[in-house]
Amino acid sequence: MKTPSQILPDWESSLLNSAQQVQDLSLTIPLWVEKRGPHSEIVFSTRIRLARNLAKHFFPSSAPAAELTTVSDEVCAAVSKSGALTQPTFVEMDYLAQLDRLVLVERRLASPALADRKGSARIILGAGEYASIMTNEEDHLRLQSFQSGLSVRAAWQKLERIDEELSNHLDYAFSQQLGFLTACPTNTGTGMRVSVLVHLPALVLLDQMGKTSRKFAKLGLTIRGFFGEGTEVIGNVFQISNQLTLGCSEDDTLGLIEQVAEQLIELEQKARAQLLADKKLNLEDKVWRIYGVLRYARSLSSGEFLNFLSLIRLGLDLKILTGWSETLLQELMLVTQPGHMQKWHKASRVTEKRDKLRADIVKNKLKLTGQ
Amino acid sequence: MKTPSQILPDWESSLLNSAQQVQDLSLTIPLWVEKRGPHSEIVFSTRIRLARNLAKHFFPSSAPAAELTTVSDEVCAAVSKSGALTQPTFVEMDYLAQLDRLVLVERRLASPALADRKGSARIILGAGEYASIMTNEEDHLRLQSFQSGLSVRAAWQKLERIDEELSNHLDYAFSQQLGFLTACPTNTGTGMRVSVLVHLPALVLLDQMGKTSRKFAKLGLTIRGFFGEGTEVIGNVFQISNQLTLGCSEDDTLGLIEQVAEQLIELEQKARAQLLADKKLNLEDKVWRIYGVLRYARSLSSGEFLNFLSLIRLGLDLKILTGWSETLLQELMLVTQPGHMQKWHKASRVTEKRDKLRADIVKNKLKLTGQ
Q1: What pLDDT sits at residue B328?
Q2: A289–chain B Cβ distance below 8 A for any pair
Q3: Hey, what domains does chain A have and what are their CATH numbers?
């Protein structure tokens, strides 16, 4: 006799395990985060996403519930058949508690919008979280790939292959004149958004970010806060992404982002050198005071903590602080987010209690630096 | 054959050693500071000073140089003969370098005005710095006595005895109608100024100091900053002193200050209890963050350091911090002042370098708390 999971296709039995899969995921650090890529002292990560839709289906916002499920099923089947993602994990958002959805948002696997979606919306994850797919977000498919550091070409190579393999099994909505058709016209064309997260504390400290932003805005770029659209800049981390998807090739977009990121790296490096030359003691003092606060605080809010970590990271990059393991900072950034804290440390949902626990976690971790 | 010091009276040979005496003094902590007096968790110290003048001499501001010397000599001879001060040390301000004068100001043995005086101005110190005399400040004599904590009666007992013993050897300017005559009419009468330094961080944190000050101002009191007239409030330390010297007895003044200090102690204790009841975590967090900053800062300015120490002291009083020796805080307050740092640690006269050294000293001292 066959068990239900033997009767169902792989992806369907994986969906039934959605909650457990997110639970397991939440206790790990993404492989792509652990591996430090090129220029990772300034560029946290490179992300590329492609918006794709299936011909002969309504866009998600106007599709009836049954059609959403059909779309999700078609995508899952295509992923499974094509082998586009290695060791794929299939997650149905509807099967997840609020906390598990939050964990996916914190890992940037789900958009905040997807976490609130009614009707079938799924996440399909490749091993190590290098690549993933959302179904029925704004578009039928949102393919994305992540790399540590500035790694535009590697991210694209991976994503292009996934896109091609899927296109053999799915009927993409495509127009010879416009390119890929999307729910929102701002994505039509390549459907591509390349974004890099850059850490520019020295430019901020030297009050040069206003000027820098204005200069790059003219090139068809958006510069905004950590979590994308509508979020403020926290921890001196800026997200740089392309505005145009129409009238330019994928290669144009990759080239533009790469070029701008390289210029920002150079400006930030100059600013860091200037800080070391002109204000070394002041900078050391700032960094070490924050280290002291992190070692002894009894309560740390999520926002101030990210701001503190920015200067800690600068201190590590400039060798003001030493003795930290390669991944301590990345781990701290991930596990002190509200959702992950609730998962890793059974933290309370009450903000005040969580701030207290965050301080405890950080204090204990920092003791390991032996300073 | 006799050496010069055998020919001269004791006090004159002591004067010749002025610089060495201040050097020796600068490397010690005053005995009265080490002994913690009543309510010393809130009242740092009690100080009483008496203004006295010699009949038949011009007040210092209008006396020719020779007369200033005569007055100083008469006072020194009287101190020596009377035994009013135990093991007196005699210091001529004119024999001191600027740095040594600063050390005396920081120990509150000289007023800033005395440190700048042209012509003979002296300080005569009793053992342990409990009592001392300035000559040719605003008045011919300024006698003062210090006690740790709220100790108005003990301070007065000591000072009254000194005053009486000196009066047997000096012809005080005294009027039956007005009392003791002084250079400035605001001191005429008793010539007495009683002042207590109170540490009121909880009242400040709860924003109750404005109301409290206004209430006590009506009683004929002055509430001002640490270093007296014209100085701002640093480190939540307030100096409470009497305004009136005419039309009231010494006993009235002592009683008033004692009573007001006791009321302030009670208000501050209530405020501390309220902080612990309503904002314990917040207070612990504040105290420990400052501890962390003090442990790791690379530069500490004198003013911010005093502000930090205020919360550290509160933390010790409320047992948030433990493991500190009884005198560590007092020692830190004394030796991190600019003049004392130059003496104890051969610190630079350049503020920036001194701020760096201050941070080093504090860091090394705090390591001893083992936290």
Answers
A1: 83
A2: yes
A3: 4-195 (3.30.590.10), 279-365 (no CATH)
